[in-house]
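Hello Y.,

Per our agreement to keep a running log of every chain we model this quarter, I'm adding this entry. I've kept the format consistent with earlier entries: sequence first, then predicted structure.
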Amino acid sequence: MRKFVFAALLCSAAVAAATFAGGCKKSVNYGDYVSEKRYDTYAYGDDNVDIKINLYMREAPFCADGIKGKVEFTGEICVTLPQTYELVEVEFCGNYGEMNYSAVENNYTLDFCEWNADGKCDVTITADGTKNVYQTESVLYEGVIGCERALDCVIEKNADYFKRLCDGDVFLGEIFIRLLYDEGCYYYVGVCDRQGAVKAFLVDGEQGKIIATHDGRG
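Predicted structure for the entry above:
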C-alpha cells in the first residue's frame, strides 16, 4: 500500500513542479540552480478539516523551463472543509485574506508573502461568519534531513546523469526540491533540462535513500 502512496506523491509532484540536476564538476554549486525549494510545511488535520501551510523559496514568476530565475519567499495555505461556503476568510501569523475556492481540488487557497512563526501557527478560519481556530505545527521532526542534503543524496547516486547536463562548469537545467509529508517526511527532487525533460526522485527524509524515480516533462 505504501508503494502506491509513494508513487502517487512522486507523480503529483512531477506534474506540479519539474526536475532537478547535479554533479558536473566539483566546483559547481548545484544549490545555485535550485529555483523552487519547499522547505517546511505546517499542518493540522481532523475528521472534518485539513490545513496545510507550505513555505517556499521560489522563482517568481515560476516557469519550469530549465532556467533559474529570481528566487524569493512565498507561501501558500490550503484548507479543506466539510462543505462549501460563500465566503471563507483566513487569518494566521500576520496574514489575512479571502480564500479562493478550487472545485477541482475541493479546497480553499491563499498565497502570502509574510511569515513569522517558529514551529507552531494558529489559524483562524471564518466560513460564512462562523469562526474557528486551529493550531498547525511544522511536520519536521528530529532526524529529518534538509533540502540541501536531499539534493546531495540524489547527486551522489546519479553522478553520470548530472554530468551529462553540464557544459563546462555550467549546469544546463534547474532544480526543484519539495518537502512531502505522509506519516513521515520525504523529498521530491526534480531536474528540468532546457528541453523540458524531467527526471524526478522521491527521497526518504531520514536516510536520504532514493525510493522511486520518474521520467516525464515539465
